[in-house]
Amino acid sequence: MRSYNYYSNNQGSNSLKYDFVVILKNDSTFRVRTKINVLQEGNNFITVKDDGIKQKIFPADTKSISRVTLEGRTLIGIPADSCWLFLVDRGAINSYSFLAETGTTFIIAIQEGNDSPIVPLTKENLLPMISGDPKANKHASKNNFQKAISIFNQNKAKEKAATL
């Protein structure tokens, strides 16, 4: 899942610096203050210094990376093909970002419920998930995917609350 679609410059961009807990494929765990380097072409990565030597860590090198927000919420990034996917919004449709940021500004992947596969955020993937919700469908047809997901999740939460 490419994250560079959300950036307009050719150099790519970076996240803010955070304290991340990194779990490598070999189960080694360490804490590092760093940022996620977001590239236009290629894999995102973090940079760590070990004995003065800088090393790039890519999603494929890890089992996960995580950070704790100021509100105490843990954002866990799972490796995808070119980036980490952070669950940023949970609902009938879960939303994933390539940055360890709260909110839904940089959503690139979605998941219907908790047991379905995580798929790229596209109109083709979203429309079947929100079928039967005219207001959400209206926003999705105008490529306003985040609003469609938000409306759909709110409506599903209201339906669930009404049955309790």
**Integer count of domains:** 2
Main sheet makeup: 8 strands, antiparallel
Q: How far apart, in Å, are the first and last alpha carbons? A: 38 Å
Query: What is the strand tally?
Result: 12
Write up what this structure looks like:
The chain is of the alpha+beta class. The chain folds into two domains: 4-87 and 94-113, no CATH class; 122-164, no CATH class. It has helices spanning 123-129, 134-141, 145-163, and strands at 13-14, 18-24, 29-34, 37-38, 46-50, 53-57, 62-68, 74-79, 84-89, 93-97, 107-112, 119-120. The strands form three sheets. It has an eight-stranded antiparallel sheet with strand order 3-2-7-8-9-10-11-12, with helices on one face. α2 (134-141) runs antiparallel to α3 (145-163). Mean pLDDT is 88; it is low at 2-12.
